[in-house]
Design brief:
WD40_repeat_dom_sf, cytoskeleton, flagellum, dynein light chain binding, cilium, four-stranded antiparallel sheet, 12 helices
Length: 717
């Protein structure tokens, strides 16, 4: 068989293998026979076929011998060579034996590469042309992996990938030799190992020398054991090793404890706990906080039918109890309800629901338990932040005081606790700087704290000043005052009144400096002279100063203020005149504990006293307009409602009361009795809700919701 190209040249391939003619090659006949068979049957024979290999450009002939049913072999080769033509010579005669035994030469040449399977290698040689490019891609990928955490360009997603083919690998290693070892431990080894934190570990040499130097003469069991161990250096070495191992374990335990303490004291951990506490408090107090803010109570959608039935049963029980109270109070309502009010409201006594106080929660904790509540104040910038002053004010039972800042978001523990050396008697938040809290104390000192700081130290303090009060600071207030006729703004002043008879103004600068607005002097009582009675000499006064207990500035004119004294008088004073009083109101027969202007009808003011009475005054009259007395107990605190000119709250020792002058001037519309051996000391209305806060002598501040209290149609008395 011969192969010719397009120009007619003989390009028949030559054989690559020349066999030895002396050897017998049985396969050669078969190959020749197959070649002859191909020529006889008219099959196409393509001798040139190449396969690409990773080693280079070697070309080989791929031949597949298939055994057909007639036991004939065929040669399969490539068929896509357009530049090769096969010329087949037809043989009319049958092949003879010589023809079959003749040698046939086949020559292989390089042809077009055909890729059957391409598996690129994952490893590139450093000497190859692509080494630089691969290294650059690896560096870029390493940078991407390094910058991946916290980058918004990457998103964590799940995906399914093809599992790689499993491979079995076998390795040969030395056999692991197991050994059993034991040692003898004496009683003193156990004792020293147990108390290793108190014993310094010694080296092996020191331990052996110390053991060798011991006396062998002893009668006690421990000394006899030590004598036995002297004869063996191995025992002493083992003991020192055990002590060293115990010391290492003890140090590891101490390091773990220090690491745990560092985690607990870290700022991030504290912040996480703060957020968790907020979430728990919101979940626990959500119904009560919603009632405080007058919002609907949220119901968990996952509540089961049994739970919903229980809630419905509780509501029915409350409704029955409410109906029962309504029937019991019908006669009392008819007694004190004014008919004119009924006609205005166009309701009968049976249709009016009596007002009441519903307790929501209480501000109390272990730190404040047992200390009396002296004063309360809302923050001017954050109405959810409440400052409460605590202290013991018995002359013989003095204790250290506290100023705590409570938040509605956590009624179980205060946000800030400022510990004072003396009892806190008064406190108030600044209006211009709501973060400043002024605190007055029982020893006459005044301190200013920054509630933004977690530190317990005061920002400013006048304890070392010579101008400080010599008596308790019973009331303290930040007051705004216009700068003058030419001024275009307000300035804030800190005003205090003390038992030493001074009303002072404190200037908040680098230090606290004060000026006296008024020195309250004692006034003689006016006594009527009977006919024919001789004039009596006036009694000599022990002190010319009268103890000041309370004050309140006029809501519209910051130049005038009222001051209540221990002798039962109320003086109207002016900031521009510190020598004499403008007016003196005499009506109480005991110390005046509180005086307050009406925020709506600014000519009226209230005062309460230790003589069990509350008096309503008009500033133009020195005679009391109305006197309220409902219990035989000291009235410690009063406050007008911020929403009504007719409503005020009072706290006496036995109960807290709500008075509504539009309903009755004889008895309070709501009263809440104190617990046994507990006295109410202060009251405070919430600024933005219908709630009342009541403080007592045991350090508890109760939050009550005012229910069914009708709002009057006018704001003037």
């Amino acid at each position: 068989l011969q192969v010719f190209d397009d120009e007619g040249k003989d390009v028949t391939p030559h054989p690559l293998f020349h066999s030895d003619p002396n050897t017998v090659a049985p396969r050669q006949g078969k190959l020749s026979e197959s070649s002859a068979h191909f020529g006889a049957t008219g099959s196409v024979f393509l001798p040139s076929f190449s396969v690409h290999q990773t080693s280079g450009v070697n070309a080989r002939l791929i031949c597949l011998l298939l055994n057909s049913g007639q036991k004939r072999s065929r040669l399969l080769t490539s068929y896509n060579f357009s530049d090769v033509q096969v010329r087949r010579e037809e043989t009319k005669e049958e092949l003879t034996k010589e023809d079959l035994d003749s040698r046939v030469d086949i020559y292989l040449t390089e042809t077009e590469t055909i890729w059957i399977l391409d598996m690129p290698s994952v490893v590139v040689s450093v000497e190859s042309e692509d080494a630089g490019r691969v290294q650059e891609r690896n560096r870029i990928y390493a940078d991407i992996c390094k910058n991946r955490p916290g980058n918004d360009s990457f998103v964590e997603k799940m995906m399914q990938t093809i599992n790689g083919a499993t491979k079995n690998k076998e390795a040969q290693c030395d056999q692991i030799i197991m050994e059993d070892k034991g040692t003898t431990v004496t009683s003193w080894d156990l004792y020293d190992s147990f108390n290793v934190s108190e014993i310094e570990p010694t080296s092996k040499a020191e331990g052996s020398r110390a053991t060798t130097g011991k006396s062998s003469k002893s009668d006690s069991p421990k000394e006899s054991n030590q004598t036995t161990s002297v004869s063996s250096d191995r025992g002493s070495t083992t003991s020192s090793i055990l002590i060293s191992e115990s010391a290492v374990l003890a140090r590891t335990h101490e390091e773990e404890e220090r690491h745990s303490e560092a985690i607990l004291a870290s700022e991030n951990f504290q912040q996480d706990l703060f957020f968790m506490e907020r979430i728990l408090m919101e979940n626990i107090f959500q119904p009560k906080l919603a009632a405080y803010r007058q919002l609907p109570v949220l119901i968990d959608p996952g509540v089961t039918a049994d739970t919903s039935g229980t809630v419905a049963a509780v509501k029915e029980a409350k409704q029955e109890e409410h109906d029962k109270e309504k029937k019991d109070d019908e006669e009392q309502k008819e007694a004190f309800v004014d008919p004119s009010v009924l006609s205005d409201l166009k309701k009968t006594p049976e249709e009016i629901v009596p007002p009441r106080l519903e307790q929501l929660w209480s501000y109390i904790c272990d730190v404040t338990n047992g200390l009396g509540v002296s004063s309360m104040a809302w923050n001017k910038g954050n109405p959810d932040l409440l400052a409460v002053g605590y202290g013991a004010f018995d002359f013989k039972g003095q204790k250290k005081g506290l100023a705590c800042c409570w938040s509605l978001k956590n009624p179980m523990w205060p946000e800030r606790i400022f510990r004072c050396e003396h009892g806190v008697t008064a406190l108030d938040f600044s209006m211009a700087s709501p973060n400043l809290l002024a605190v007055g104390m029982y020893n006459g000192s005044v301190a200013i704290y920054d509630v933004r700081s977690c530190k317990d130290a005061a920002l400013l303090d006048n304890s070392g000043s010579s101008d400080k009060h010599t008596g308790p600071v019973w009331e303290l207030r930040w007051v705004e005052q216009y700068r003058g006729a030419t001024g275009d703004g307000k300035r804030e002043r800190l005003i205090c009144i003390s038992a030493d008879g001074r009303v002072t103004e404190w200037l908040v600068q680098k230090r606290l400096h004060c000026t006296d607005l008024m020195k309250i002097k004692r006034t003689e009582r006016e006594k009527k002279k009977l006919p024919g009675e001789k004039e009596r000499k006036s009694e000599a006064l022990i002190s010319r100063q009268a103890a000041g207990l309370c004050f309140d500035f006029h809501p519209k004119d910051g130049n005038f203020y009222l001051a209540g004294t221990e002798e039962g008088h109320i003086h109207k004073c002016s900031c521009s005149c510190n020598e004499q009083f403008l007016e003196t109101y005499r009506g109480h027969k005991g110390p005046v504990y509180k005086v307050t202007w009406n925020p709506f009808s600014t000519d009226m003011f209230l005062s309460c006293s230790a003589d069990w009475s509350i008096i309503l005054w008009h500033q133009d009259s020195q005679t009391p307009i109305l006197t309220f007395s409902s219990a035989t107990a000291f009235v410690h605190d009063i406050m007008w409602s911020p929403k009504s000119a007719f409503v005020f709250a009072a706290a006496n020792e036995s109960r807290a009361e709500i008075w509504d002058l539009s309903v009755s001037i004889l008895k309070p519309v709501i009263s809440c009795s104190a617990n046994p051996r507990v006295k109410f000391t202060s009251v405070l209305f919430a600024t933005n809700t219908d709630c009342l806060l009541v403080g007592d002598s045991k350090g508890e501040v109760s939050v009550f919701e005012l229910q069914n209290l009708a709002a009057p149609g006018s704001n003037k008395v």
